C-alpha cells in the first residue's frame, strides 16, 4: 500500500493496520481488540491488516475468519476485502463449497477458512485445526465456547488474535474477560468512534445519530458498554405510533401469533396500506385472568374470526407452539411460518420499524398498547433481556417484523407449511 493511500486513514485506523509490524511499539502484543461505534471503520482496517500480516510472516499456513454466520461474514468482510486485496496485487480464489479463500502473493499462498459462531454447537466446527491466526468479527455476538475453542487452535509460533465488535451489556463475558483485561491478555485495545472514520461525512454521521436512542444510542453511536433499562419501547408507550389506518383498503394481510396455554395467547392482524403495515386488530386471551383454558381448536376458531373474509398471506406463529401449528396445518386453510425468534435483535428491528414509519398500531389493539406501557428491560440480568411479563403482544409484533419486514442477513429462510 503506498503512502498516498495511507493518507485516507485516521490515526486509529493506521494503528489497526500496522500494530503487528516490527517497527510498531505494539508489535509484541499477542492480539488486537477493536470496539466502539458502528460505521467507525474498524472492520475494514482490521481485515485488511489481518491478511497483510499473514503474508508478512507466514507461507502455506491456515488462518480463520469468523463471524456470527458465514453469510454475515461474507457481507461484512469478504465482499469488501477481496476487491481491495486484488487491487494491491493479491490473487484471491474463493472455494464456496469449502468456505475457503486461497490468497497468493509473490510466490506465497495462505488459506483463510470461514466459520460461523452463532451458537454453542459451532465450537465443534473448528476443532482439530491448526491456525496461524484468527480474526473474530462481531465477537460479542458469539458464544464463549466457540471463541475459546477458536483461540485454542492458534498454536503456530507467532500466531495472533484479532477481535472486533460493537458494545453490548457491560456484564458481557467478552467485555469482562478481554476488554477490561486487555493488558493482562497482552492485547492492544483500540476504541473507535465515527469520527475515526474519515470517509464519513458529517451529514452521514448525523443520520446515524438519529437512528438510535437511549442505551442503543450510547452503544452504537458513542461506543459505550452500557446496560439497557426502563421501558423497551418508551415512545410507543406514549402513543407516538398509534393511529387509525387512513382507509380500509389493504393490499396484503398477515397474522402474527404468540401462543400460550397458561400464559396469554396474542394474535395480531396486519394490513398493508401505502407501504405501511398497520396492526389493525387483535385477539388476546389470558387463561390466568379468565380462570379457564382454551384448546387449540378453540384458538383456531378465534383465528378464523379475526381473519374473517380476508385473504391471509401467512400466519407467523410462535415457533414453540408445535400443537397449534399442527392444528392450523390440519385445517388446510392458512399457510404457517414458524417465526424467527431473536429477542434483542428483534426488539431493535421493531424499534426501527416504528421509528421509520413502517408499522403502526391501531387504537383497536388495546392489549398491545397496554403492553407497550408495561414491557421493561430486566435491569438485574447479566445480558440484555426484557422481563418475561407483559410480553405476549410484544412477542407477536416482533415475530411479524423479523419475518415479514426484515431483510434477513444470515441466510435464514422460512418453511411455509402448505395449505
Give structural notes.
This protein is α/β, with parallel strands linked by helices and 419 residues long. The protein is 35% helix and 20% strand. It has 16 helices and 14 strands. The strands form two sheets. An eight-stranded mixed beta sheet has the order 3-4-5-2-6-7-1-8, with helices on both faces. The protein has a six-stranded mixed beta sheet with strand order 13-12-9-10-11-14, sandwiched between helices. Strand 4 and strand 5 form a beta hairpin. Helix 14 crosses helix 16 (392-405). The chain is elongated. The protein starts with a helix and ends in a 14-residue tail after the last helix. Mean pLDDT is 91; it is low at 1-7 and 407-419.
Spell out the key features of this protein:
single chain, 6-stranded mixed sheet, 16 helices, 35% helix, disordered N terminus, disordered C terminus
Output the radius of gyration: 24 Å
Biggest sheet: strands side by side, in what order?
Answer: 3-4-5-2-6-7-1-8
What share of the residues lie within helices? 25-40%
Total number of β-strand segments?
14
* Secondary-structure element pattern, one letter each: HHEHEHEEEHEHEHEHHHEEEHHEHEHEHH
Q: Proportion of β residues?
A: 15-25%
Q: Report the sheet with the most strands, covering strand number, pairing sense and barrel closure.
A: 8 strands, mixed
Low-confidence stretches are: 1-7, 407-419
How far apart are the termini? 58 Å
Structural class: alpha/beta
The overall average pLDDT, rounded, is: 91
Shape: elongated
Q: Treating each run of at least 4 consecutive H or I residues as one helix, how many helices?
A: 16
